[in-house]
């Protein structure tokens, strides 16, 4: 019976998954416990309505129902099912990036029509810090006078994707760079800086700064490249 409901509810939810937006974003950390609240004021009788929680993760792409009424479909989740009091919360135990970093949906549907009568959405970010940055082509970059070159700063991982900002040593003004986000904690985020060095840029230092909100206030990761400009 549970398996039949699983496939039925997945079909109903996928039809609206792409058009709905999460109305609340939450951060948590690895191994933490937390509760996602789903509250309502109307009375919904279990004989006439279906209650469920669903989870969508992007890496890897996966959609699952994790609770139906008071039944948990995954040992990491426990529904707090008290519809007579307007409560259908989801308790998450020992949060992990691989299992929980994604979107959670609480839905109450009318039986028969499948119409949503109540829904709440959460974007849950399981915070992890990024790795120290690496600069390509290296910490000493060989350049030619008046010839364009690129410096790429890469940081693997981090949840959420880290920000990477380039600076020239001696100034606090950020430099314009092209950023490509990794999208998961196992992929690099890159920021590419394009330069056209002049003779007087020989020995100039460029620094990239990496951080995300998993890190402590004021904490950041840095890497520096020094230009070695060959004159024409």
What layout of secondary structure does this protein have?
Elements: H1 2-17, E1 24-29, E2 34-36, E3 49-58, E4 61-68, E5 71-72, E6 77-82, E7 87-92, H2 97-100, E8 102-110, E9 116-127, E10 134-136, E11 140-144, E12 149-156, E13 163-168, E14 178-180, E15 188-195, E16 205-211, E17 221-230
Parallel strand pairs: 1-9, 11-17
Antiparallel strand pairs: 2-7, 3-4, 3-8, 4-5, 6-7, 8-9, 10-12, 12-15, 13-16, 14-15, 16-17
Domain Ig-like: 15-125, 132-226
Membrane topology: Single-pass type I membrane protein
GO molecular function, one term: cell adhesion molecule binding
List keywords for this structure.
Immunoglobulin-like, single chain, 2 domains, four-stranded antiparallel beta sheet, 9% helix, 232 residues, disordered N terminus, six-stranded mixed beta sheet, 2 helices, mainly beta, 48% strand, 17 strands
Structure, described:
The chain is mainly β and 232 residues long. The protein has 2 domains: 126 residues, Immunoglobulins (Immunoglobulin-like), CATH 2.60.40; 97 residues, Immunoglobulins (Immunoglobulin-like), CATH 2.60.40.10. It is 9% helix and 48% strand. The longest helix is centred in the first third of the chain and has 16 residues. The N and C termini lie far apart (77 Å).
> What is the CATH class designation of the largest domain?
Mainly Beta
Number of helices: 2
- Biggest sheet statistics: 6 strands, mixed
Strand content: over 45%
Distance between the termini: 77 Å
Signal peptide: 1-22
GO molecular function, one term: cell adhesion molecule binding
Domain Ig-like: 15-125, 132-226
Subcellular location: Membrane
């Amino acid at each position: 019976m549970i398996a039949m409901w699983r496939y039925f509810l997945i079909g109903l939810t996928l039809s609206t998954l792409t058009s709905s937006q999460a109305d609340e974003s939450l951060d948590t950390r690895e191994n933490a416990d937390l509760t996602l609240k789903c509250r309502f004021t109307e009375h919904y009788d279990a004989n006439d309505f279906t209650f469920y929680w669903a989870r969508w993760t992007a890496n890897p792409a996966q959609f699952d129902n994790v609770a139906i009424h008071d039944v948990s479909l995954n040992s990491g989740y426990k529904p707090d099912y008290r519809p007579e009091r307007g409560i259908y919360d989801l308790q998450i135990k020992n949060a992990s990036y691989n299992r929980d970093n994604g979107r959670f949906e609480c839905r109450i549907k009318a039986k028969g029509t499948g119409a949503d009568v109540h829904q709440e959405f959460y974007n849950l970010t399981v915070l992890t810090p990024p790795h120290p940055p690496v600069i390509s082509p290296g910490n000493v970059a060989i350049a030619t006078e008046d010839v364009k070159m690129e410096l790429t700063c890469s940081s693997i991982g981090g949840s959420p994707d880290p920000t990477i900002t380039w600076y020239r040593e001696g100034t606090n003004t950020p430099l314009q760079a092209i950023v490509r986000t990794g999208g998961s904690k196992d992929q690099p985020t890159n920021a590419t800086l394009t330069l056209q060095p002049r003779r007087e840029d020989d020995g100039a230092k460029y620094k990239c700064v990496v951080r995300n909100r998993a890190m402590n206030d004021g904490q950041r990761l840095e890497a520096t490249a020094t230009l070695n400009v060959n004159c024409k």
